[in-house]
């Protein structure tokens, strides 16, 4: 290796069934009053009340922001920030999926540094003050956001997803309790699971990968490939849920340090303009982009192919083909729709292709891809993905 490499993770990671109950102890070491950033689903499931009870037992007061309803936006950040100030909170706890965690990351930095979240895009502004302590508690096995220094926030004024990466956005602590993901419905398990697989694959294929991220990415791919179907078919299968939670965590650590590539670069504009949840848009794009990239990463895709079919004695090129076809088959089995099947109007989509392609390039992620596309190739890829068939049959609808 002819360059320096870094591996940055949250200072504290607690993992395992039942680890949610540790939130009180973790919080008491970091603050006196917490703002819990969550959503209505977590409220209905009783997870927020349980969190508040754990905090109360450790003499930590709390307030709750329930405003996260979609992919995170700058408006959510402003609303939650107002609650931090009004309630005198000195600690943030995110409880939910990646949207809750990403919102909390932004709030924790702005609360101590002031300004607006869009000022931090592209490193134009670097956080100089330490963020509020942030404990991230994921309830899906997908985004890995609990272990990354990245937040993605939609700018509602121009409908652009702002990807911001700075060490200050890394949570202070992560609590990964697989039991919290049991409530995820099948379609969420599918989308977040393929999202996690995308993180692992892209971290492994990225030009910024290094031996430490390779180790995490390979482990994550094995865990997810071998257990995602079981978690999808039976949400109460705790072995599958545990393996998926661990795989998602490892994939998050891998891509936070190696970066993501073309899938995420193309996915963000789709989410911003057509409000497709991040996990689904990644899943819709992954097979076609692996086909596009294959010729430039045969050996690495071969490693993935041998995870899907470990007992096949095949060449690297054959194993790379197995990887692409197996990802297609997986998307079919998990009933992932294509963009047309999701319900996106074809005319509107075609009109947006130019903007999406330019926004994707501007994000920087496509430059990490083994094969870096031109603007024209990006536009063609968007058009290919619109009605892409994962198998010989029509892709399932939403």
UniProtKB/TrEMBL annotation:
The keyword DNA-binding does not apply. InterPro entries: ADH_Fe/GldA, ADH_Fe_C, ADH_Fe_CS, Alcohol_dehydrogenase_Fe. Residues 189-384 form the Fe-containing alcohol dehydrogenase-like C-terminal domain. It comes from the Bacteria. Keywords: NAD, Oxidoreductase. The keyword Plastid does not apply. Coiled coil: none annotated. CDD domains: Fe-ADH-like (cd08194). Pfam families: ADH_Fe_C (PF25137), Fe-ADH (PF00465). Residues 10-178 form the Alcohol dehydrogenase iron-type/glycerol dehydrogenase GldA domain. Belongs to the iron-containing alcohol dehydrogenase family. This is Iron-containing alcohol dehydrogenase. It comes from Bacillus norwichensis.
